[in-house]
Description:
Elements: H1 5-12, E1 19-20, H2 37-40, H3 54-63, E2 72-75, H4 77-87, E3 96-100, H5 106-113, E4 117-121, H6 127-137, E5 142-148, H7 160-172, E6 176-180, E7 198-203, E8 216-219, H8 222-235, H9 241-252, H10 254-277, E9 282-286, E10 293-298, H11 304-313, E11 316-317, E12 319-320, E13 329-333, H12 338-353, H13 357-361
Parallel strand pairs: 1-11, 3-4, 3-5, 5-6, 6-7
Antiparallel strand pairs: 2-8, 7-8, 9-10, 10-13, 12-13
Helix pairs in contact: 3-9, 4-5, 4-8, 6-7, 10-12, 11-12
The chain binds pyridoxal-5'-phosphate (PLP).
The site of pyridoxal-5'-phosphate (PLP) has 13 residues, from helix 4.
Amino acid sequence: MTLTMQQWIFVESYGRYTLDLGDSNVELADITTVPGFAEITTVPLGYGHQAGLPELRAAIAARYHNVDPADVLVCHGAQEAFSLLVRSLEITDRSEAVVIGSGWSQHTYYPAEVGLSVVTVALDPCEHTLLAAVAEAVTWRTKVIVVATPENPTGWTASRDFIEAVADIADAYDAVLVVDEEYVCDPDMSAAGISDCVAVISGLSKLHGLPGLRIGWCIATADLVDRCTQRKHLTTISNSVLCESIATAVLRDGDRFLARARTLCRSGAHTLQEWASVLPQVSIVNARDDLPFAWLRIDKSLDSLAVARRALDEGVLVIPGEVFDRPGYLRVAIARPPVDLDRGLKVLARAVCGPRLDLLTAGGRA
Ligand SMILES: Cc1ncc(COP(=O)(O)O)c(C=O)c1O
């Protein structure tokens, strides 16, 4: 990989943009409007509970069907949930992880970091072909199978039948299937509870627009949750009770946050489609009503990193495909207020077209 997400976001771009069309979350939410917000500031700042405040675990469980609060572990984002799950496996020097697609590089880097051999299975538009490839890749050495649905950055989304079939494979090989549901808007779509071998991870970072709370979770059997909790004691002990209290209030008010996400995603997808329709250099691979980001392909003659750098020079953050090992693509956040998205897309159009934009803007569209 020529450039990592970490380098792009936290080093090269940090402090250089005023408009964020890069992060894959819905625009940051205003938490001061949640009922009971004023009381949160009086929460005693102790350690709380290692598995998360009971009321937060209950509020998370209530989002799903048939999930018990005992099956929920609160973590520092879905990222910590993922790392705890991987660390809770019995890893030997022959252990393997099978990662399906996953442009989210931590899914491959983290298992490798802790000593698993990682086998990646490239996404295929045909689920039958993909399933056959997964079945081929899984062996008795496989400890964990990982899939993100919807996937970041492509937006690829698995059907329930596919997830159930992969769960059957995981079950047969005594592996854990981690389903990353960071971008699942509708809890009815969740794989939580479909099998004891399935562990779901998610959080408040994306659709709720609150990455700064660092509140995520894992939903798994009580036994797996317990093993992860033992690991958590060695890493972060517990989450911040202040953030957990805010998260509880947010989840109790969850429908409003998700409705806001849907509105922003819908209008963002529409704006982006109009924008791209007058730019021959850009084609939309994925821009959906239920996802906060779009995945764009740009003309072969253009360098996606150079385009992202030109936008950054004008104070707009977008994500170049290079950080996902896919040069020639851009990930653009669309769940933004219309006025911000319009401004950012104008800058991006200039970054894509260079001086030739004048020809296109004659009609006033770009
Ligand atoms: C697919 C996916 N999983 C997990 C994460 C980590 O998110 P967080 O730790 O903020 O919940 C991200 C962040 O972008 C992501 O895209």
